[in-house]
Amino acid sequence: MDDLFPKPKPAEPKALSVTQLxxxxxxxxEVQIGELWIEGEVSNLKKQASGHWYFSLKDDxxxxxxxxxxxRKRSGHEALEDGAKVRVFAEASVYEARxxxxxxxQKAERAGLGDLQAKFEALKGKLHAEGLFDxxxxxxxxxxxxxxxxxxxxxxAAIRDILNILERRAPWVQxxxxxxxxxxxxxxxxxxxxxxxxxxxxxxxxxRSDVLIVGRGGGSIEDxxxxxxxxxxxxxAASEIPIISAVGHEIDFTIADFVADLRAxxxxxxxxxxxxxxxxxxxxxxxxxRRMQRQAVDRLVSAHRAVxxxxxxxxxxxxxxLLREPTIRVDALRYQLERIIRTSMESSAGRLAEARAxxxxxxxxxxxxxxxxxxxxxxxxxxxxxxxxxELRQRKLxxxxxxxxxLGPDSAFQRGFTITLDQNGQLLRSATALHPxxxxxxxxxxxxxxxxxxxxxx
Length: 458
Known about the structure:
Layout: H1 18-32, E1 35-47, E2 53-58, E3 63-68, E4 85-95, E5 100-110, H2 114-129, E6 147-152, H3 157-169, E7 174-179, H4 187-199, H5 201-204, E8 211-216, H6 230-238, E9 243-247, H7 255-259, E10 262-263, H8 267-274, H9 278-312, H10 319-361, H11 364-407, H12 409-414, E11 419-422, E12 439-444, E13 447-452
Parallel strand pairs: 3-5, 6-7, 6-8, 8-9, 9-10
Antiparallel strand pairs: 1-2, 1-4, 2-3, 4-5, 11-12, 12-13
Helix pairs in contact: 3-8, 4-6
């Protein structure tokens, strides 16, 4: 029976490809873990020419591969270096080509420095807004200080470096040390008090310094943090004595550096900036002395040659001969000067006379007299022209009057003619224009007659 009816074989389970499996893992990791902060030590850092950086982040128990794409454009990339303790903000992912878990770093910062950096930036912004960093409030260092004040630890390498350089460059300078602690709790108040004392030496019975050096040797940011405290910054700003800030190494920057009148990259550099180089000064003095000696010798030689030339020349012929030619030139110049002065005076006198004549001609009284004469002449001309014009108009009027008497209606009236007008004063020219009962007026030479029309015949 089993041969006649064989049992069906169970279906084989469907297998996933490696790519499908890794993609499922990648999706789970990216969704469930997502972005987060991770802290560890950088190792095996590789900076590719493409701008992408690859490294491992490890601790005592494990490590994970990291990638930062376009690293130099990412915040905090400068914190990444082999052996550095860092915190990175990254996204967990899977590199499918190798089946490898990795994190994609978005930004990084030194481990444990997030809060300190925030405090640093906040205080920096506050003091900058108050103008404590402005260049116009910074004081110039003296060129040749005699006393240099130093505020640092009396047991560190910084004080030894400063004293050695001061002794080598300017042995005549007197160093005055105000020892302070430069690391530990409350040292910022100790440093600020030392600055205040050195800035007011008479009050505390210490020598007055021409310039102050404030700082310490290198260390971690926590070691240098006392120079990022506000109390130290304000003490530096209040000092009337110029201050050089010399904290840590060249790459270290503190709030004190921004407030101080000058920042030195190291304590040794601060000493070099504070005093001139004695060897260089001696060399410059020797060079100046040689130049002055050479100039003096050259002038003496030149004067000696001039004296010798005079001895061989005019002085041998006597003083009278020596002065003869200059005397002739002086006489000629005197004659020319007199002639020029005389000519100038004559010219000035002529211009003065001309100016006086012009003044008399243009005197207001003369101008008014000429204007009055002109007005009188114009008045006579106007009266004559007006009289001629009036006489001409009278003759023309008489002619027109004669013509009017001869040709006008008055002459017709005198010959017995009349004119008839209607009630509106219009001239009636035809009998057909009249109708019975119409009022008319008839004008004679000596008056008018009003009448009424009884009948009209053509």
